[in-house]
């Protein structure tokens, strides 16, 4: 198997992008981007450390949980999780991030690229609290590029069509997966029960 190792070699396999895909990239958050983010309950954050080790982490909450501070700045609250901090530690080493915002049922997505920093500012954490529970920290993203992404991936995958979804009971539960991967002595049902209890107690 041969691999493509240069930009020129890669471009030989693709047409040049048209004017539209190039011109649609904005350097700020316009009213359409603000509206999209305000309706989005879910975002993926891509990052990498200085050695090039990459990570993508999901962040989800009530629609509009990512705050638009101004035309160039976003604030993403960090709720309780597994404390691995893969993405957050990446950001400390390398601030470059890529964001992908979703709205359920909508095939188009919003892409935002920029540089991120982490803050534990009390005033901002209080602003982003849910039911009186403050996020642990907040990711501040300075926007460098912002643009809408077309629907083809979602159309091909039929992601939002329930009739295309696999039956959930044909797949293992997380408890079953963890029992096997970690060689746990507990039953899968016990692990699943513990996970459910943790979700209820530490969602925010």
Could you please describe the fold and organization of this structure?
- 17% of the residues are buried.
- Helices cover 31% and strands 27% of the residues.
- It is globular.
- With 204 residues, the chain is α+β, with helices and mostly antiparallel strands.
- It has a 7-stranded antiparallel beta sheet with strand order 2-1-5-6-7-4-3, covered by helices on one side.
- It has helices at residues 7-11, 19-23, 31-39, 86-93, 122-127, 152-157, 174-182, 188-202; strands spanning 42-48, 54-60, 67-70, 73-78, 96-102, 109-119, 137-149.
- It folds into 2 domains: 21-156, Electron Transport, Fmn-binding Protein, Chain A (Pnp Oxidase, Chain A, Roll), CATH 2.30.110; 166-202, no CATH class.
- The chain has 8 helices and 7 strands, in the order αααββββαββαβααα.
- InterPro entries: Pyridox_Oxase_FMN-dep, Pyridox_Oxase_N, Split_barrel_FMN-bd.
- It comes from Neoaquamicrobium sediminum.
- This is Pyridoxamine 5'-phosphate oxidase family protein.
- Pfam families: PNPOx_N (PF01243).
Please describe the structure with a list of short key phrases separated by commas or semicolons.
204 residues, alpha+beta, Pnp Oxidase, Chain A, 2 domains, 7-stranded antiparallel β-sheet, 27% strand, globular, Pyridox_Oxase_FMN-dep, Split_barrel_FMN-bd
